[in-house]
Each structure stands twice: as structure tokens, then as C-alpha cells.
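stage 2 :: seqdesign
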């Protein structure tokens, strides 16, 4: 299955297991991200409805692009300006397309431990 998602003002064709480089997204390596803006989805030549469809991704790394040198010069006016820029990027690994997200063991253990702590806290207060 494939999908076309929009993030950072650009569109990307993705499938499960793909790695893509997108404009900087907030988060650290290992965090999961949900891309909600799905423009098209399908399998083979058949298209599916994109109503409520999401793409689950995991941040692999936060990186910088190649350095771009900006040089301005006006001849005969002794005007020269040199500047450089490196764009911030996020490398994503697509985990799943279509709402079915794989839960990591750490998140599952954390969500199971939270209700137990709140129940103990309520019992101690009463």
C-alpha cells in the first residue's frame, strides 16, 4: 500500500518501511510522528478513501542539509557579501499506513503502569 502525504509544503509518496527526508519536525530520534494530511492512498492501481487516514512514522534522526553559499557582488562598487546556510531536516521511517500503528513495548508498559499508580494514589488519599 502507498500514500501521498503533504508535510512542510511538499508532497511525498510513501510506503511502509520507506525512509524520507522532510523539513524539520519537532521531536527527538526514536519519537513517533503521525502525518494526518494524506492526499491519496491506494494499493496497485486501486485507490482508497483518505477520510480519517493517517500515516505513522518514526523519527530516525534530526540532520542538516548541504551548505549553500550565497555570494553577492556589485562590480566597480567594492560591494561583496558572502553568506552560508544549512537547512534543518528530519529523517523519517514510515511505520504504517492507515491508522494501524505498531505500539512499542516501552509505550505499552508505560500506559499499563499509569493506571496502577493512580489507583494506589487514590487509595492512599482516602
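stage 2 :: out
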Amino acid at each position: 500500500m502507498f500514500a501521498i502525504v503533504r508535510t512542510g509544503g511538499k508532497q511525498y509518496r510513501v510506503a511502509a518501511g520507506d525512509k524520507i527526508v522532510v523539513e524539520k519536525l519537532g521531536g527527538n530520534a526514536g519519537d513517533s510522528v503521525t502525518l494526518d494530511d494524506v492526499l491519496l492512498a491506494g494499493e496497485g492501481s486501486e485507490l482508497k478513501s483518505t477520510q480519517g487516514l493517517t500515516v505513522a512514522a518514526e523519527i530516525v534522526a534530526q540532520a542538516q542539509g548541504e551548505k549553500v553559499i550565497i555570494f553577492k557582488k556589485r562590480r566597480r562598487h567594492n560591494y561583496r557579501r558572502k553568506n552560508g546556510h544549512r537547512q534543518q531536516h528530519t529523517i523519517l521511517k514510515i511505520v504504517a499506513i492507515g491508522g494501524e500503528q505498531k505500539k512499542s513495548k516501552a509505550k505499552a508498559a508505560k500506559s499499563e503502569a499509569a493506571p496502577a499508580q493512580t489507583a494506589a494514589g487514590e487509595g492512599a488519599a482516602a
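stage 3 :: structure notes
- The first helix runs from residue 105 to 125.
- DSSP finds one helix and eight strands in the chain.
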